Amino acid sequence: MSAEPSMEEILSSIKRIIAEEGEGTQARARRARAAPQPIEPEPEEVLELSDPMPHSRMEPARVEQPRVERDMARVAAPQPVAQPAPQPVAQPAPQPVAQPAPHHYAPEPEPAPQPAQPPRPAPVEPAMSDEPILSQRAAAASLGSLETLSKLLVKPEPESDGTLEGLVREMLRPMLRSWLDTHLPEMVETMVAREIAKITAQMR
Fold it and tell me: Where is there biased composition of kind Basic and acidic residues (predicted)?
């Protein structure tokens, strides 16, 4: 492959072609002015192989002129870059939207009625009896026996009135104190609870 001509060679060829074309145009104009009468056709000359060919100096330039122009156009003009054609984008087909099936809600069962509770019976309090534990006859007999015993065993205290009742009171005082210390708190608590229950029953 032959090396491509440089920019200087291309410009020199262009200048030479322009100069030769200008000289040829001026020569034709001078010949036209000098020969106003029609020129008879000259007999066709037979060219010999040894004779020089006319206008041989201009032929190479005329032949090279298109190549020079192509070289200049190729150097000056940028090569277009082929852009790929855009590919059509395939649109997805619309998918059918599934409709949700209607929900059938079963009615909630009503709560069963609660059976009515029977009323509670009121607490039965024991009946308080006002009757004494001992009968009058038993009390009198016991009192007589204790009086006789006290006269024999117990001497009356100086502060005592000297009667049987005073002697019994003095004898029972220590025992009564001990019994009260043991049983009085429980008795009081029982009586208070009984009264509270009675008041509560009345408020209902």
Answer: 54-73
